[in-house]
Amino acid sequence: MPIAAFDDRAPDAPHVTDYDERHHQTYWRLLDAAAEKADWCEAVRIIFGIDPTAEPDRARTIYDSHLARARWMTEIGYRHFLRPPTA
C-alpha cells in the first residue's frame, strides 16, 4: 500500500480539514495500533514509513500529533461526517 504524503504535524483546527479528509485511514490505523498497544516506533515505521532511529524527534512529533488528531476525530470531528452534504 503506498504511503500518502503527510505533514510532520497533523492539523489542530477546530473543524475537519481537507488534510483530515485525505488522511482518515491513517488516523484509523493509528487508533488500531494504539488499541493493540503496538510500539509507537513500529507504528511510525509501518504507517508513515519513517525510521524512528534515524529521525527520532520527527518520528515522535508525527506519531503524537497524528494520534492526537485521530482521537479528536473520534470525539468531535466525526460529527462532520454526520451532516447532510450541502448542494
SSE topology string? HHHH
Determine the number of helices (DSSP H or I, runs of at least 4 residues): 4
* N-to-C span: 33 Å
- Average pLDDT works out at 90
Low-confidence runs (pLDDT<50, min 5 residues)? none
Helical percentage? 55-70%
- Number of E strands: 0
Radius of gyration: 13 Å
Shape: elongated
**Major β-sheet profile:** none
> Structural class of the helix and strand makeup?
mainly alpha
Q: Give the DSSP E fraction (strand runs of 2 or more residues).
A: under 5%
Brief characterization of the structure:
By secondary structure, the chain is mostly helical.
What do you see in this structure?
The chain is mainly alpha-helical. It has 4 helices and no strands. Helix 2 packs across helix 3. It is elongated, with a radius of gyration of 13 Å. It starts with 17 loop residues before the first helix and ends in a 5-residue tail after the last helix.
Q: What are the main properties of this structure?
A:
single chain, 87 residues, mainly alpha, 4 helices, 61% helix, 0% strand
Question: How are the elements arranged and paired?
Answer:
Blueprint: H1 18-35, H2 40-48, H3 56-77, H4 79-82
